[in-house]
């Protein structure tokens, strides 16, 4: 385990706390043994993420290692949009699962679930209308 992840992922008794990030979203994940319920910002998963693709993204790490019904997950997420938040939740859950059971680290790594997606919005440059688009050329 890397030293920096040891600080981010903490074990408090039976509860594991991990952080996931995607774009501008940050998710703080609390994982403990339970019956498989997932609560996001005080609401059920289906109520918080109405889109099926976002729900599949969030539970992807749990389904990949077969722990969907073995843990209770409580997530506090803020910033960004729903898709970015779902990606942040997925990374946070994967990091928490790695601390929960060390033997799950390799399957999670092989599935690409422990890799942080570093793609961010490109900043606007001066003299341009956006990050790359210039102004329309006018001959006259």
Q: Topology, pairings included?
A:
Elements: H1 3-8, E1 10-12, E2 15-22, E3 25-33, E4 38-40, E5 43-44, H2 45-48, H3 52-65, E6 71-78, H4 82-100, H5 105-110
Parallel strand pairs: 4-6
Antiparallel strand pairs: 1-2, 2-3, 3-6, 4-5
Count the domains: 1
Q: Given this structure, which CATH class is correct? A: Alpha Beta
Distance between the termini: 63 Å
Task: Sketch the topology as an H/E string, one letter per element.
Answer: HEEEEEHHEHH
Share of residues in helices: 25-40%
The mean pLDDT is: 91
Strand order of the largest sheet: 1-2-3-6-4-5
Question: What's the CATH architecture name?
Answer: 2-Layer Sandwich
Radius of gyration (CA) equals 18 Å
CATH topology: Ribosomal Protein S5, domain 2
* Count of alpha and pi helical runs: 5
Contiguous runs where pLDDT drops below 50 for at least 5 residues: none
Principal-axes shape call: elongated
Quaternary assembly: single chain
The major sheet is characterized as: 6 strands, mixed
Supply the helix-strand structural class: alpha+beta
